[in-house]
Amino acid sequence: MTRLPDDFIFGGATAAYQAEGATDIDGKGRVAWDTYLAQEGRFSGNPASDFYHRYPIDLELSQKFGINGIRISIAWSRIFPEGFGKVNQKGVNFYHDLIDECHRRGIEPFVTLHHFDTPEVLFDKGDFLNRETIEHFVNYARFCFDEYGDKVRYWITFNEILSVSAGQYLLGKFPPKEQFQTDKMIQSMHNMMVAHAKTVVEFKNKNLKGEIGIIHILEQRYAYDEQSVLDKKAAQTDDVIANRFLLDLTFLGYPTELTETTIDAVLQLNNFSYTVLEDDRDILKKAAALNDFLGVNYYQSTFVKYYDGENLIQLNGTGDKGTSIYAFKGIGEYKFDMDIPRTDWDWLIYPKGLYDMLIRISEDYPNYRKIYITENGMGYKDIFENEEIDDQPRIDYIREHLKAVGEAIEKGVVIKGYFLWSLMDVFSWANGYNKRYGLFYVDFETQQRYPKKSAYWFKKLSEQKIL
Ligand code: BGP
């Protein structure tokens, strides 16, 4: 039996672009996704879950179902339509109202400043590859601290720097849809970390009463064949790119020797390099001691086999099981033929990977203060029948991952809460509307909400805290 702590947060996660809809009203500026999704023609960020208008309903439901924390993100381009300069008061007011409503319902808002949605004006000038974006981000963050600082206790600078940088420049699944541009990927990760560091220092200088942290997607890499030296090396290299580089910069302020040599080797495969300024080192070092918490997003782990063929990527964006391919020349290939269950989107269901990751963070970065699991959940093709949704596989998924969290807590890792991705069904960046994650089913035509079986289960769990 696993018992979760009494003060544990049972939360639900959302993100502005995936939940709000209303992408082009009340003065909101465009983001690159608006243009990109229209060009791709598969689906759009409208209506999403129409959270912009329906958040009171979602918060009422949340309260009824025992949820005491919510992740929301502020859409930068609702506040500054161009990313800087002129302020859009309607956008500012919207987040006041949303945050106030969270508090009225007894639900603690954890507010992210950037969840994949740089304003298009800045995106078109190079996004975070352009160092001016760093300064614009810090100014936007400062504005939010001044505006909402008296009522937001938990701030998050960035959601998943890896997903942004790799999605944009390695995997080609985010605009501008480039692949294997590892120099841009690493530079973007570095620059976003500098923006994070500057923002943390800015926040601390203001002596606000809240806390600030960052969210990383942290998923273990294992060697496909534990006996193979090459597979082990492949897993290690992939792990440095995906996990260690960002954790080092977050908690040490500089890359360790292993990280540095691995990143250099990856870049040298294409005669690439990246730029680090002297000031970057100072600010990263300073911020490394100031993070109040780390957000861990975890969905799956990855088994890596050494690979020396041509670069190859095929995204499973439809839930057609068995269609994912990822193979990076000179590094590794992701394997799926182990005896491990996986979702229709080929995500390996492996709770042990979460446990291993939590232990590892606590051992490798003992200056972390506390962890929140800020995203975990199962993409599933929910079936709506007689206004009921039986999502037992999702319940099993959550239970097993929460057990892993409980075991890590027993081993002394400080973990203060869990946010299910997602609170209600939302729009999925690469999959649109058929990959559902929510506790509350959303009929995207009528925008009606229906609690799934998992919502009833989660409510009981939040009351009893026993798994
Ligand atoms: C995380 C993102 C979320 C959400 C989730 C599920 O990486 O922070 O925004 O999208 O993944 O991903 P997907 O919708 O691709 O299944």
From TrEMBL:
The protein's enzyme class: hydrolase
Keyword Hydrolase: yes
InterPro entries (UniProt xref): 6P-beta-galactosidase (IPR005928), GH (IPR017853), GH_1_N_CS (IPR033132), Glyco_hydro_1 (IPR001360), Glyco_hydro_1_AS (IPR018120)
Keywords for this protein: Glycosidase, Hydrolase
One protein family per Pfam: Glyco_hydro_1
GO molecular function: 6-phospho-beta-galactosidase activity; beta-glucosidase activity
Pathway of action: Carbohydrate metabolism; lactose degradation; D-galactose 6-phosphate and beta-D-glucose from lactose 6-phosphate: step 1/1
Record-annotated active site: E375
GO biological process: lactose catabolic process via tagatose-6-phosphate
Family: Belongs to the glycosyl hydrolase 1 family.
Record's protein name: 6-phospho-beta-galactosidase
Gene name, Swiss-Prot/TrEMBL: lacG
